[in-house]
TrEMBL record:
Record-linked PANTHER family: 4-HYDROXYPHENYLACETATE 3-MONOOXYGENASE-RELATED (PTHR36117:SF3)
Domain of life: Bacteria
Pfam families given in the database record: HpaB (PF03241), HpaB_N (PF11794)
Protein name: Anthranilate 3-monooxygenase (FAD)/4-hydroxyphenylacetate 3-monooxygenase
Residues annotated as domain HpaB/PvcC/4-BUDH C-terminal: 280-480
Domain HpaB/PvcC/4-BUDH N-terminal: 5-273
GO molecular function: 4-hydroxyphenylacetate 3-monooxygenase activity
Organism of this sequence: Fictibacillus barbaricus
EC number: 1.14.14.8, 1.14.14.9
Record key words, sorted: FAD, Flavoprotein, Oxidoreductase
InterPro entries, per database record: Acyl-CoA_Oxase/DH_mid-dom_sf, AcylCo_DH-like_C, AcylCoA_DH/oxidase_NM_dom_sf, HpaB/PvcC/4-BUDH, HpaB/PvcC/4-BUDH_C, HpaB/PvcC/4-BUDH_N
Length: 495
């Protein structure tokens, strides 16, 4: 099939009936569900961009295997140019959503591409697994499917491993092997956008201990596979809030879901890893399935930070407070933070790494530094926005108020900004800012930046430990070399 249109993506959603639960009710008509309607449109727009002459050459390419046009997220980069072709796609998709949608289709396409092209890793444990992931990669590439993923166990007792939980099947684990496949039971989280995707892929962060064998799993299945339930969190908007009042929250909410597997049959050809603690622990560090999607996350995070910074600057200007030194200092800090991330991205791309199998990846240290900095920089941008907007953020009238003739003069007079900024312009800007820094929608965006790819504290600790293993500390050795053999010749201290 090659690249899909937005309409074809929506047709795909209509053809499936996943078991979705939201606010105590079963959602049966996904595309017409008010909560999902607009986010579906936003994803459909990305699919349509693949056919738009303005973007097509920057976000798609002709697949050498099939001769069909496919998305650049399926490129297996073997050169700087191919890596940058992917980077361009990340940037275009991120700009189309202001970096506010983290799990656009490119994200998991890159994960699967990384896994499939590192078949040598799975081959060591079971050659069938590498064949399965390669076939799966072909399947989602050629049908242009949209995936969600769930890699975290439900948050029950974090002080115990999976096999130490009270119930054997609280965490997702294998129940039995059958001739047709593997039966799995238990839960995984936090599957962002799950209700509006085609497929789900399951794998895990490292951290398995002996005894966890049944939980060491990686597989993919259609989102409407029998026995799989999607339990949605509380929606942050009801789908009825106006675009005027909530210009971002009404468009870009990514629903998150807990996935509950009630004895779900995973066909053997969809199993990529099973019953092997070592393989599950090494999948992440050995195959680049962290580093390649971190490129997407870095580009997206950069756009999101730049967007929040623009909003803060415009907000300050609209009410004339950026004449003050303290406000200039805060805004200057945000602009510099954007420059830091932009520079790190450039370093990541120019100082790329080539693996033993010839895969080109952005520089790992630079990407991990972005990963470490954004959870501090994005909340800071939100804090500055809150401080600058102050009481005005809470005071915006609604779109209906602008349409009430009895109060329109008052609104035009008292919601005016600095000279040249009309009340409508100022209110629209404050509403944009409030979606980012006040609404539940904005709080989720902040939490996303902290946790989207694991706990930032443990990630930084892993980064430090890796650094320590590789570091030579040669400057310290140089500095100390002049004091070599001096101990014996030092004059003794006289008391
Ligand atoms: C908005 C959002 C979207 C997400 N989307 C997805 C998605 O699409 N797919 C997906 O799979 N996941 C997704 N995630 C989940 C994300 O991977 C996890 O939130 C992240 O890995 C942290 O795990 P946790 O939330 O269970 O926190 P926990 O691991 O339970 O951590 C809670 C706290 O305890 C501390 N802690 C816990 N265990 C330890 C330990 N062993 N050592 C030291 N400190 C510890 C942590 O530092 C943290 O402060 C998303 C998360 C968010 C917030």
């Amino acid at each position: 099939m090659g690249i899909r249109t937005g309409a074809q993506y929506m047709e795909g959603l209509k053809s499936r009936t996943p078991e979705i639960w939201m606010e105590g009710r079963r959602v049966t008509d996904v595309v017409n569900e008010p909560v999902f309607k607009q986010p579906i449109q936003e994803i459909a727009r990305l699919y349509d961009m693949q056919h738009d002459p303005q973007y097509q050459n920057d976000i798609t390419h002709i697949c050498t295997e099939t001769g069909e046009r496919v998305n650049n997220s399926f490129l297996h980069p073997k050169s700087y140019e191919e890596m940058m072709a992917r980077s361009k796609l990340f940037e275009i998709y991120a700009k189309a959503t202001f970096g506010l949608m983290g799990r656009t289709p490119d994200f998991l396409n890159v994960v699967v591409t990384g896994m499939a092209h590192n078949g040598w890793f799975l081959d060591q444990y079971n050659p069938e697994w590498s064949v399965n992931i390669k076939n799966y990669y072909n399947y989602i590439r050629d049908n242009d499917l949209f995936l969600t993923h769930a890699i975290i166990n439900p948050q029950n007792d974090r002080s115990k491993n999976s096999h130490g939980q009270k119930d054997t099947f609280t965490h997702l684990g294998a129940v039995e092997e059958t001739p047709d496949g593997l039966v799995v039971r238990g839960a995984k989280m936090l599957a962002t956008l799950a209700p509006i995707t085609d497929e789900v892929i399951i794998y895990s962060f490292p951290g398995f201990a002996p005894g966890d064998e049944r939980y060491a799993l990686a597989f993919a299945i259609p989102i409407d596979t029998p026995g799989l339930k999607l339990l949605c969190r509380e929606p942050m908007q009801d789908g009825k809030r106006s675009l005027f009042d909530h210009p971002l929250a009404s468009r870009f909410e990514e629903m998150d879901a807990l996935l509950v597997f009630n004895d779900v049959l995973i066909p053997w050809d969809r199993v990529f890893l099973y019953n092997n603690v070592e393989a599950a622990n090494l999948l992440y560090p050995k195959t680049g399935i962290a580093q390649q999607p971190a490129h997407q996350s870095g580009v997206r995070g950069y756009i999101k930070l730049a967007f929040a910074t623009e909003v803060a600057c415009k907000l300050a200007d609209s009410i004339g407070v950026d004449v003050y030194l303290n406000v200039q200092n805060d805004l200057g800090e945000l602009v510099q933070n954007v420059e830091v991330i932009r520079s790190l991205l450039r370093v990541a791309e120019y100082e790329y790494e080539t693996t033993a199998s010839g895969e080109v990846m952005p520089n790992g240290a630079a990407l991990e530094t972005i990963r470490g900095m954004l959870p501090k920089m994005y909340p800071r941008a939100i804090e500055v926005m809150q401080v600058i907007g102050a009481g005005g953020l809470l005071m915006s009238p609604t779109g209906y108020d602008f349409n009430a003739p009895e109060i329109r003069d008052d609104i035009d007079k008292y919601y005016l900004g600095r000279e040249g900024v009309a009340s409508l312009e100022r209110v629209k800007l404050f509403k944009l800012a409030w979606d980012l820094c006040g609404e539940a929608f904005g709080q989720r965006l902040l939490q996303y930046e902290r946790y989207y790819t694991g706990d930032p504290i443990r990630k930084r600790a892993i980064f430090y430990n890796g650094h320590k293993r590789k570091a030579s500390f040669s400057m310290v050795d140089d500095a100390l070399s002049v004091t070599e053999n001096l101990v014996e010749t030092q004059p003794k201290l006289v008391k």
